[in-house]
Amino acid sequence: MQDINWTALIVFVVLFGFITWLGFAAAQWRKGDLDLLHEWGLGGRRFGTVVTWFLVGGDLYTAYTFIAVPALAFGAGAIAFFAVPYTIMIYPILFLVFPRLWHVCHKHNYITPADFVRGRFGNRWLALAVTVTGIVATMPYIALQLVGLQVVIGAMGVSGTGFAADLPLILAFIILAAFTYSSGLRAPASIAIVKDILIYVTAFAAVIVVPIELGGFGKIFAAVPPAKLLLAVPGANTTGTYGVYATLALGSALALFLYPHSITGILAASSGHAIRRNAAMLPGYSFMLGLLALVGFFAIAAGVSTMPEFAGGFKQFGNNFAVPALILHSFPSWFAGIAFAAVGIGALVPAAIMSIAAANLYTRNIHREFINQNPTDKQEAQMAKWVSLIVKLGALIIIIAVPTQFAIYLQLLGGILIIQTLPSVMLGVYTRWFNDWALLVGWAAGTFAGIWMFEAAKLTPNYPLVFAGHTFPGYTALYTVILNLIVAIVLTPVFNAMGAKQTDATVPSDYLA
Amino acid sequence: MDPQAEKRGWSWWYLLFVLQFVAVLWPAFYNTVEPSWAGIPFFYWYQMLWVAIGAVLTAIVYFATEA
User: Fold this and answer.
1) Which helix or strand (DSSP H or E) is residue B47 part of?
2) Taking Cα atoms as reference points, which of B67, B25, A151 lies closest to residue B13?
């Protein structure tokens, strides 16, 4: 690899030092009793519209997104832009479903989606299914944040062999673990503000400066090979790439707000109004994501992949190195330091929220439900703090011990798994029509079909469904959640007829302001 | 808006959301280079435009339903 880029590294370390201080100082911000789980794990549900905008933006638009989406554009072309319709469709869902979820969770002091399912459907096994799905889907997602961190650390020329190679990553994680433990959700909320400003600066600098250097958008798009510029037109008897593109966008949109970390960010808002306002304001991030996807094309036009100084980086990180290479090529070192810090800090914010969300799930829906049913408030909060450490350690081990590609497969599978909680959580917010056992069987059907299809499609998230002589390649998550729904709908009258008692701890007015 | 609709949790304004789903879910409609804008193929600027339109539609629904 190249030598250490000291200027960039110093800027990076200074910014990292600043957010470390901020993470610890955050415990004093809108001070609450951090021995209560909703204070540690939801910031006391006190974040207004603006802080929620930064927090949810920092939560959803992760470091991995900023590296991987342009990398996909760089490698595969137009298909990467599915992230744009995906993020267009998430906000109507946020607007319609999640203020209701916020109200009912606020009313009953629910911290997690599984808390809600437990109360709504009165079935601890259905709640357990939601819990386990949430934790399993989140773990590789945390690990992937580390990939983003690894790439930028590598891009600054910091390298080594054996233990030394992983040392910077381990250091960053110790910092992350410590401030999450001590400040809870207040830490990522405050750091998200810094991170998002840095990301916006980087993104706008990139889309203004680089096209000028390269001679305009016309020249950039002319440099992109025609096969990558647009989606391949489908042949006869198949929906081809169009189907893949649309189902990836829709399936991802339906899955996104079911992730525990998304729900944690939303439940931390101070009101349903704050959530609705954010549905109109968060597209600001989608716009930036679209711009960043184009940065993948800038990297093609700049020809970074053939520059000898970046050969080592591409060899080590593959297409994920496209954006860091372009930044190093186009900007002075001090600005590269800012950009890399944006990505690095951008990894810590979601990683912190994800670990808090997984910790809340374990504490509330496994430990309290099955092990110690009457913990004191303090014991409950303390348990969550410890679990957040264990979860992060697990993610660190995944990324150090197993190949990156494996974490990516698991994350792709995670989307297929998490969407199976849609009938219980998202539809549950609107209706108590479903039978709880029917939902559980539907969940199991969707989950097993999803794993099988993922396996059958050679560990890719798209499965070529064949129906009446036509092929419909598409996102497995969408296909399997439809199966899940059909099973739940068919079995609901059957199970109801068998006379299982249906309970509901909530009443309709709990869901409204 | 009228308090009855608030109680039911439904508003006809929500139908505006359907537009953005229709606009982006059929790629055959926008998978072209022309008409390009400032050198950017239609495929890209069309979808970016819908990010902005989606935000405006959501804002309209917000103001129409939160009296």
Assistant:
1) helix B42-65
2) B67
Output the DSSP codes for A168-197: HHHHHHHHHHHHHHHHTTHHHHHHHHHHHH
pLDDT at B3 over 80: no
Between A and B, how many residue pairs show a Cβ–Cβ distance under 8 A? 109
Distance between terminal CA atoms of chain B? Answer: 6
Exposed, middle or buried: residue A38 (CB in 10 Å: 0-12, 13-18, 19+)? buried
CA distances from A298 to A77, A206, A210, A293, A295 (A): 12, 9, 7, 9, 5
Contact A280 B50 (CB under 8 A): no
Mean pLDDT of chain A: 88
- Can you say whether the dihedral through the CA atoms of A5, A6, A11, A13 is positive or negative? positive
Helix (H) or strand (E) holding A386: helix A377-401
Q: Which domains does chain A have, with CATH numbers?
A: 6-511 (1.20.1730.10)
Cα–Cα distance, B57 to A144 (Å, whole number): 34
Q: Chain A residues with CB inside 8 Å of B9's CB? A: 100, 511-512
pTM beyond 0.95: the answer is no
A302 and A287 Cβ atoms separated by less than 8 Å: no
At A444-481, the pLDDT tens digits run: 999 999 999 999 988 888 888 888 788 888 899 999 99
Q: Distance (Å, rounded) from C-alpha A203 to C-alpha A289?
A: 9
- On chain A, the residues whose CB falls within 8 A of the CB of B66 are 273, 276
Q: Is A154 exposed, middle or buried (0-12, 13-18, 19+ CB in 10 A)?
A: buried
The neighbouring-strand residues paired with B50 are: none
